[in-house]
Amino acid sequence: MAGTVLVSGGSGYIAGETIRQLLARGWTVHTTVRNLSREAELRGQLGGSPETLRFYAADLMKDAGWAEAMDGCDAVCHMASPFPTSVPKDENELIVPAREGALRALRFAHAAGIKRFVMTSSAAAIAYGHPPGKSQYDESDWTNVDAPGVQPYIKSKTIAERAARDWVAANAPEMDYCAVCPVAVIGPVEGSDFAASIDLVLRLLNGSVPALPDVGFSIVDLRDIADLHVRALEADAATIHGERFIGSSGPFQRFADVARVLRDNLGPQARKVPTRKMPNWAVHLLAMVMPPARQLLGELGRVRATSSAHAQEVLGWSPRPPEQSIVDCARSLIEKGVVKV
C-alpha cells in the first residue's frame, strides 16, 4: 500500500527509523522539522532522494507549514511531541504543545482529505496512576492524570491521545485513526541524537550509575516499533480503525537485568557496568540532593508490565527479544564513539 505519507517530527529517534523503513518499502515521505537548516544533516541519516523524501518547516503550536506538508499525502504518521530534558516548572510546557500539536495535525489532515492517521502515543498513557497492586497493563487501560505523583510528560501523552480520539469521534468518525503506544525504546543509534531511554544503557556502560536501583521498565526495539507504525499505515482500514497498539517486546526489565545482559554479552567492554544494588533508602537520600532522582521514588519496587499480544495478533507484529535490543544498542553506542569504554 505504498503511497505518500507525512511523518511529523522527522528529527526524532523513532521517526527517523520509521522514515527509513517507509522509504525502503517504496513510500514517498514528507516530514516536518522545526528548522529546515537541519535538512542536509537529516537527509544524510535518513536516505532517500529529493523526490522521495521532502522536508517542511512546521511547529506544533503554529499553523504555518502544515497544509503544505499534508499536500498530496495519503496518510499521516504523527510522531512529533515534546520530550523533557528535565522536569518542567510548569507542566503545561509539555501538555499544551502535545495536545495542540496532535489536534493541529488532525485538523489539517482532515482538511486535506486524508483518511489514515497513525498517532505515536506512549505506554505512559496506559500504565500510570493506578492502584499500587496493579502490575499488568493492556490497551484497555488508561493513565489517571489526576492521581498523585503523575509526571508532566506522562500527563502530556495521555491528554494528547485522549484529545485526539475525542476530536476524531466528534469531527471525523470516518477517519482511520489509531494510536501506537511504545514502552522504553532501545536499539542502534546513528549518533549522539537519540531517545532518552538510550541514556540508561549509556550511563551503565560509562560507569556514571554507581549502583542499581530497584526500578524497571518494559523495552521495545527501535526497529520493531518503527515496523509497528509501518504495519499500522499499511493495514486494512477495518483492522486499525479506532485501535490502540502497545509496542513492547517482552518481560519487564529492571536496572539489574539490563546490567546483567551487558556484562554477559560485552565482556571487557562492560567493565564499568555496576554490579551492586542500590538500597531504597539510598535512592531517597539521592533524591534530596539530585532533583531528577525524585522521579525514581514512585517507581521503586513497582512493576508495569505491558502486553503486546494485541499488536501481534491483529497486525502480525513480531518483536525481537529485549536482550538483543540492549546488546545492539550498547554496541552501536561504542562503535559510534558516543560512549568510551
TrEMBL record:
<dbReference type="Pfam" id="PF01370">
    <property type="entry name" value="Epimerase"/>
</dbReference>
<protein>
    <submittedName>
        <fullName>Nucleoside-diphosphate-sugar epimerase</fullName>
    </submittedName>
</protein>
<feature type="domain" description="NAD-dependent epimerase/dehydratase">
    <location>
        <begin position="5"/>
        <end position="244"/>
    </location>
</feature>
<dbReference type="InterPro" id="IPR001509">
    <property type="entry name" value="Epimerase_deHydtase"/>
</dbReference>
<dbReference type="InterPro" id="IPR050425">
    <property type="entry name" value="NAD(P)_dehydrat-like"/>
</dbReference>
<dbReference type="InterPro" id="IPR036291">
    <property type="entry name" value="NAD(P)-bd_dom_sf"/>
</dbReference>
<keyword id="KW-0560">Oxidoreductase</keyword>
<dbReference type="GO" id="GO:0016616">
    <property type="term" value="F:oxidoreductase activity, acting on the CH-OH group of donors, NAD or NADP as acceptor"/>
</dbReference>
<comment type="similarity">
    <text>Belongs to the NAD(P)-dependent epimerase/dehydratase family. Dihydroflavonol-4-reductase subfamily.</text>
</comment>
